[in-house]
Amino acid sequence: MAQDLVIGIDVGGQTTKCGIVDARGTVLAQTVIRSDNHEEAAPFIAELAEALNRIIAEAKAEGRIRGIGVGAPNGNYYTGTIENAPNLKWGHTGKVEFAKMLSEQMNGIPVSLTNDANAAAVGEMTYGAARGMKNFIMITLGTGVGSGIVINGEVVYGHDGFAGELGHTCAVRHNGRQCGCGKHGCLETYCSAIGVARTAREWLEMSDEPSELRSLDKITSKDVYDAAKDGDQLALKIFDFTGRILGEKLADFIEFSSPEAIVLFGGLARSKEFLTEPILKAMNENVLPLWRDKIKLVYSQLKESDAAILGASALAWEL
């Protein structure tokens, strides 16, 4: 039987999403496992392989898998390794030979690996909001802040495979927050889901402003979103603050590559009704007149799981 199927895997800080994909981009079967249940890479990869074999059986796809594509934090397209990924419990120090280890667990099926945001960018360019675009920047707003830069229709990898870490550019230069990468003031510490929750906790401690968030023991970005939906003034200010920081950094990114659009993707991007206005305002206030009011801000058109799965799967067709 023809090997007419591939697998796409999106490794996130908290969950890993996997899907079997056909040549038309249809996700035939998918599953989710926790990314944070293990301290070491080997048991995580063993659990991942077990989950993949389950959905292969579910889709009756035994013997038909041509290859596996993986998007992961600090995934290196050139080497197949994950290196010093701050948001992965089992990958935040040293180098993990991820592609090699997973291929061995999957009886030799070839594996290709890239950065998770790069995978999402490929998925969006092929199937979503960036279809037809040759120059755009994908920003993923999840547990962290990732980015995929596409220039002339090609993902930018750089000389070592790690280009595009825009989430770790400095957003707050003085007294910036400590980031998991070891630096201070990274964009990720303010504009990720974790960053939004951190802003909420800090602001609650610094003021006595009334807010429904005060009744919560452990605040998440979704709690802040729900409060904003209820008209909570503190929550609305948090999104305005977050959007302004992101918009200022997007202005810098625009001046670097002159993209047609910025595409926002990920869990925090679902708060677009509170983020869009402050992002655009700050972006256009801080960009050169050459690009003012010319760069589109668009949101992913794909289901959150599908964009990265489809993007990662595209790598596998080349194996």
Biggest β-sheet strands, sense, barrel = 5 strands, mixed
- Distance N terminus to C terminus? 18 Å
Indicate the CATH topology of the largest domain. Nucleotidyltransferase, domain 5
CATH C-level class of the largest domain is: Alpha Beta
Q: Which value, in Å, is the CA radius of gyration?
A: 20 Å
Unreliable residue runs = none
Mean pLDDT over the residues: 94
Characterization of the model:
- The chain is of the alpha/beta class and 319 residues long.
- The protein folds into two domains: 5-122 and 305-316, Nucleotidyltransferase, domain 5 (2-Layer Sandwich); 132-300, Nucleotidyltransferase, domain 5.
- The chain has helices at residues 41-58, 98-105, 116-127, 188-191, 193-206, 221-229, 233-257, 272-286, 304-316, and strands spanning 5-11, 15-22, 27-34, 65-72, 82-83, 95-96, 111-115, 136-141, 145-151, 154-155, 261-265, 296-299.
- The protein has a five-stranded mixed sheet with strand order 3-2-1-4-7. A five-stranded mixed sheet has the order 10-9-8-11-12, sandwiched between helices.
- A hairpin with a 3-residue loop joins strand 8 (136-141) and strand 9.
- The longest helix is centred in the C-terminal third of the chain and has 25 residues, at 233-257.
- The radius of gyration is 20 Å and the shape is globular.
Summary tags:
alpha/beta; Nucleotidyltransferase, domain 5; 2 domains; 5-stranded mixed β-sheet; 9 helices; globular
List the helices and strands and how they pair.
Blueprint: E1 5-11, E2 15-22, E3 27-34, H1 41-58, E4 65-72, E5 82-83, E6 95-96, H2 98-105, E7 111-115, H3 116-127, E8 136-141, E9 145-151, E10 154-155, H4 188-191, H5 193-206, H6 221-229, H7 233-257, E11 261-265, H8 272-286, E12 296-299, H9 304-316
Parallel strand pairs: 1-4, 4-7, 8-11, 11-12
Antiparallel strand pairs: 1-2, 2-3, 5-6, 8-9, 9-10
Helix pairs in contact: 1-2, 3-9, 5-6, 5-7, 6-7, 7-8
